[in-house]
Amino acid sequence: MDYRILGKTGLSVSALGFGAAPLGGPYGPITQADATRTVRLALDLGVNFFDTSPWYQASEDVLGEALVGVARESYVLCTKLGRYPSAERPSGEFDFSAARVHQSIDNSLRRLKTDQLDIALCHDIEFADNFQQVIDETLPALRECVAAGKVRFVGVSGLPLAIYPRVLDQTPLDVILSYCHTSLNDDSLWDLIPYLEEKSVGVIGASPLAMGLLSDTGPQPWHPAPEALRLACLEALAWCKAHGVSLAEQAVAWTLQNAPVATVLVGMSSEAQVRQNVATVGTSPDPEAIKAIQEILAPVHRLTWPSGNVTL
């Protein structure tokens, strides 16, 4: 496993990070025993970065239980706040108030069975009813958690890349988490890297499969991508199947090799997925396959979709 330093945090993180959202069961039920075996295998194979969120249903509880007995200093734990499951709103409840920050951090500590979080991120901040609240209220409350010893480093996450300069031009951050912009179909994050380096921000990349667009089964019906992008990814998948290669494996390998980030998060919920993804670290994607996939995706390169309430 390769390790890299996450910005100014000094944290040494595995090139492949464990995205724990699937442990919450959104893609199908998973037993605690299976989850624990999956997490322990990842640790054994060198993965030391684990990302979760209250939004990911039971993920924090399941991950916390899976890590019982593991030396705390042997892994880096990242969770989020501000977005929560809601029976009334399928897209979740968004609450970036200071009071909810403190409540959420305490709940996460309890679920994850730890007394300190390495990283806490404001989750999908483009959905905040008042974007300025994140800067003026949420982050100051999160820094109070740092002062109290409950959190080590703070940051934000979201889809639109414009949210990051909007925050960083007003207040410093330790870390950002960007998703769906370090993938074969969309490498837009590259353009922001010089700015982020200037601000000494550690960068976490997530979803090299673009939330399933580049999976071996194609995108889910709920995927918000424009139809042209969905169709292009399905065409790339068809090419891969016809030539006996895995689109998902090529996509993950390409991102791990090329993305200018400290760690790449990949969602995992089985030992087979862990073995498959760890095997891609340090290996090169197939040049012929990548060339063909990129040619198919060229007309929709960097095409994204709207997210949130903020006009950026």
UniProtKB/TrEMBL annotation:
<feature type="domain" description="NADP-dependent oxidoreductase">
    <location>
        <begin position="16"/>
        <end position="297"/>
    </location>
</feature>
<dbReference type="InterPro" id="IPR044479">
    <property type="entry name" value="LGALDH-like"/>
</dbReference>
<dbReference type="InterPro" id="IPR020471">
    <property type="entry name" value="AKR"/>
</dbReference>
<dbReference type="GO" id="GO:0010349">
    <property type="term" value="F:L-galactose dehydrogenase activity"/>
</dbReference>
<dbReference type="InterPro" id="IPR036812">
    <property type="entry name" value="NAD(P)_OxRdtase_dom_sf"/>
</dbReference>
<dbReference type="InterPro" id="IPR023210">
    <property type="entry name" value="NADP_OxRdtase_dom"/>
</dbReference>
<dbReference type="GO" id="GO:0005829">
    <property type="term" value="C:cytosol"/>
</dbReference>
<keyword id="KW-0560">Oxidoreductase</keyword>
<dbReference type="Pfam" id="PF00248">
    <property type="entry name" value="Aldo_ket_red"/>
</dbReference>
<protein>
    <submittedName>
        <fullName>L-galactose dehydrogenase</fullName>
        <ecNumber>1.1.1.316</ecNumber>
    </submittedName>
</protein>
